[in-house]
């Protein structure tokens, strides 16, 4: 039974056109229905009030005539029109029709509705010297007017709903036609056609803004695809180089054993293998940073100034000149291992390009913690300052290869910074070379500090 339920195809929902049209018709139907009911009710009340007001005027004239003696009881009895009259006195009841004898006597001078002779009547009464005068008039014309109006509305409301449904369907269909066009265009875009874009109408409406948003998304997808393609190509090239070196030495050792000593072959294999290992580790780290998983769940207090001082000690141990006088307290929260790696990559980059010395500094300013590394090298041209943070980019190709650079160090620095909510950039250094800056959100000060 459960397998049958799983095999059952998903229920297909109605189209947007149908749902919008149905919703619009339902809303209009409720509005028209309430309006029609209110109109009929108001019309009936107005007509009844009009009949009651006319009848009250006739009653006043009749009572005045009876009291003045201008209207005799005999004339009252012989009255034959659409008004029922009953005179109730201590001596008896005088009526102009049998149905008048059944009329109730309204209290308080208010008009009421009562059945008489099979029809609805408006009944009013007043006290005169001769007794209580009760008069009534049939509501048949009022009922007929109400029925005619109801019948008219019963035809007009469905016609109005049909008109509304037709107009809404046409308008929605024309609006969604552009969406269908965009959907078809997007559906035709595959990996070989990422340079294609969605056409716009230049009207600046919501559909144009949707098309512009989709085009920006396609721009990002195309840029990402090209970046990945270039990344794969560069990574393949980088890994091919150490493999080629090892293969060449191995073939040379096999062809001419006397020309290659075993320790030379061992050194080449170990060096190139270490280079390959470094490239693979850097690629894996960048992949994790791209997924924003490397820095999540591993946040702890880290002092950028401690990282800078540790790098100063390492550089001096290598016999290179380094200045740390500008290092100030710069607490942040993050992954200590990744931040340490980013700091080391900046220092190694400076060492490769410095002529004589490097300078490290750190500070907290406006809620941002910054660590920078200056060198006295040739610097980075302004046009290349964003380019240097791309993967496998080396402005000095030959020297970077000789020094063991893979072109991934600065890319790792920027990705580490962005995974911690910061960034990295390069500018000119006071020494004349380049200043690489790692900027991160500063750690909040402890309460009560």
List keywords for this structure.
449 residues, 54% helix, transmembrane, 3 domains, Helix Hairpins, 5-stranded antiparallel β-sheet, 12 strands, Beta-Lactamase, two-component regulatory system, alpha+beta, 10 helices, Heat Shock Protein 90, membrane, single chain
Mean pLDDT: 82
The first-to-last residue Cα distance is: 66 Å
Percent helix range: 40-55%
The helix/strand order is HHHEEEEEHHHEHEEHEEHHEE
What would the CATH topology of the largest domain be? Heat Shock Protein 90
- The total tally of domains equals 3
What CATH architecture of the largest domain do you see?
Answer: 2-Layer Sandwich
What spatial form do the alpha-carbon principal axes imply? rod-shaped
What summary fits the major beta sheet? Answer: 5 strands, antiparallel
Strand order of the largest sheet: 2-1-5-4-3
Structural class label = alpha+beta
Name of the CATH homologous superfamily of the largest domain: Histidine kinase-like ATPase, C-terminal domain
Q: According to CATH, what is the class of the largest domain?
A: Alpha Beta
How much of the sequence is in beta strands? 15-25%
pLDDT under 50 segments (min length 5)? 397-402
Rg value: 48 Å
Give the assembly state of these chains. single chain
């Amino acid at each position: 039974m459960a397998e049958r339920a799983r095999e059952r195809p998903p229920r297909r929902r109605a189209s947007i056109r149908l749902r919008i049209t149905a919703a619009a018709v339902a809303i209009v139907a409720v509005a028209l229905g309430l309006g029609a009911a209110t109109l009929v009710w108001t019309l009936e009340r107005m007509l009844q009030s009009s009949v009651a007001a006319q009848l009250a005027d006739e009653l006043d004239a009749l009572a005045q005539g009876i009291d003045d003696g201008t209207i005799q009881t005999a004339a009252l009895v012989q009255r034959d029109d659409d008004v029922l009259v009953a005179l109730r006195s201590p001596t008896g009841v005088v009526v102009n029709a049998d149905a008048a004898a059944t009329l109730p006597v309204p209290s308080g001078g208010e008009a009421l509705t009562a059945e008489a002779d099979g029809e609805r009547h408006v009944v009013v009464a007043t006290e005169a010297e001769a007794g209580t005068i009760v008069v009534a008039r049939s509501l048949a014309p009022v009922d007929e007017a109400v029925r005619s109006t109801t019948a008219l509305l019963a035809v007009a409301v469905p016609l109005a709903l049909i008109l509304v449904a037709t107009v809404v369907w046409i308008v929605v269909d024309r609006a969604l036609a552009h969406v269908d066009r965009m959907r078809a265009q997007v559906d035709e875009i595959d990996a070989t056609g990422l340079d294609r874009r969605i056409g716009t109408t230049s009207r600046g409406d919501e559909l144009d803004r949707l098309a512009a948003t989709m085009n920006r998304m396609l721009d990002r997808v195309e840029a990402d695809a090209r970046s990945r393609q270039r990344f794969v190509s560069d990574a393949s090239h980088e890994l091919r180089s150490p493999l080629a070196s090892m293969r060449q030495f191995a073939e040379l050792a096999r062809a001419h054993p006397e020309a290659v000593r075993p320790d030379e072959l061992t050194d080449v294999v170990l060096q190139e293998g270490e280079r390959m290992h470094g490239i693979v580790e850097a690629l894996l780290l960048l992949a994790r940073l791209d997924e924003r998983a490397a820095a999540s769940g591993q946040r702890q207090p880290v002092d950028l100034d401690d990282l800078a001082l540790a790098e100063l000690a390492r550089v001096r141990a290598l016999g290179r000149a380094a200045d740390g006088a500008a290092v100030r307290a710069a607490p942040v929260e993050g992954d200590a291992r990744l931040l340490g790696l980013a700091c080391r990559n900046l220092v190694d980059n400076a060492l490769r390009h410095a002529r004589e010395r490097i300078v490290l500094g750190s500070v907290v300013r406006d809620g941002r913690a910054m660590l920078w590394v200056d060198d006295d090298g040739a610097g980075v041209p302004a046009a290349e300052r964003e380019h240097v943070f791309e993967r496998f980019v080396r402005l000095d190709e030959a020297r970077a290869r000789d020094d063991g650079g893979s072109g991934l160090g600065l890319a790792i620095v920027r990705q580490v910074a962005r995974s911690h909510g910061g960034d990295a950039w390069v500018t000119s250094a006071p020494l004349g070379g380049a200043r690489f800056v790692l900027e991160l959100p500063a750690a909040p000060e402890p309460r009560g500090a």
